[in-house]
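Entry 12.
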Amino acid sequence: MWMDTKSEAKQASRTRAGLHQRLFNSLLLCTGDMLHLDQHMEGKLFVLQLAVWSLRGVARVILANNPLSGALILAALYWASPWQGLLGTLGVLASTLTAVIIGQDSAEVSAGLHGFNGMLVSLLMGVFSSAGDWYWWLLLPVCFGSATCTFLFSGLSPLLDRWDLPVAVFPFNIVIVLYLLCTGPNNPYYPHHLATPPGALELNATQLDTVVRGIPLGVGQIYACGALGPSLIILGAVLLYSPLMALHALLGSAAGTLAGPFLQAWSLGNT
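Predicted 3D structure (tokens):
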């Protein structure tokens, strides 16, 4: 009787250990680049492949090549602002579809390299717009600007490759600057916010909890997200892709956030 109980306990322990190992292996499949997903998607419907490519483009904004991370980031954007989430979705789809239509390299398209510039353009257009949420006219420049990023990316790549330089977010910078120059605060269709005049901001005492909140918010601001909860999800998406990259993101955000109080204290001490 005692031997039967002991053997049953060992069997239960082995079962739990096997379950934990399977869960751990399943989690590992969701980390990194998830290249096995690309192999699984071969021969599938184009819509499904486009969804994976676009989600990789969403995550590429923060240098993470993982569609599951992209899905978490997109969900965080919809949580923070459904309007911003819609703009980001349209932007990454427009730039990715444009790359497919004009016949860009399939490896670059599937890796999301033609999606992240469109994502950034669409999000920043929504942030700069002073027309408010659900201003449907904004969808025109969002789609057009995101598609233009793909043309700029394909045109700049051969030029910058001669000096071994990446294109990165150069197309996004060109498009968003041109958009702001062509519109203005009084534009009847696409007004945007006035720039804050120099000296308009007042210096206030910085509290510790504000600084602590600012560190994860700094990661979320990469996607123009200013809410704490969605920013934590974005940080979790980076952690899923690479814990080391998440640590670097936190360290970089902490350095930038802490620089503000030091500069503020220095300014107050010299006044």
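Annotation: The two ends are 85 Å apart (CA to CA). The chain has twelve helices and no strands.
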